[in-house]
Fold:
Amino acid sequence: MKKSGVKPHQVDEQVSDANMSRRHLIQGALLSTVAASAPVEAAEQSAHQGGDPKAQVEAIERKLMWLYSNDLPRHVNEIMEYFDDTPEMLQFDVMSPREFKGTAFRKHFNEVAMFSANIKVDIMDMQTHADNHLAFVSSLQRTYGTDPKGKPFEFTIRVTDCFRKVNGKWKIVHQHVSFPIDSMESGKADFQSKL
Structure:
């Protein structure tokens, strides 16, 4: 039998190094998970505490962007908690039909969400106006990812969320999503509209 030339203490050091590397990978993964969830938890606390209504609705917007961007279909129920669940809920979307109200909005959102697992949403610009009862947030949002067939997409949309405070919680009661047109002559949507 041929001797390897590796001394027993060297083998122990190699095993120890491998265990340390594995431990560092696991710790890194755990820290990444905690770091990713921290903004969501902070937004949740801020959104329902007393204080500045503008900061509260902006925290909700940031939380929604995180939920949209991190496996949207898995977060549909949590997202719906921020939308009014009465027949008054109204959305003007970029898709037909022209509007979605009440339960039709929830059905539409669920249908769209099932095809949106690989979507990312970034707020490029946000303007907020709020008092203690009503608020509206207008933003440009860069939306990108891959469709269910693996084809990449990217576009910029305009979104306005109108909030009303219901039983101490902010709820979106109206949402307007749109693209500008590139000109009155063409009437074509400008999917890459920038500031």
About this structure: The beta strands are 90-92, 100-101, 119-130, 134-146, 152-166, 169-178.
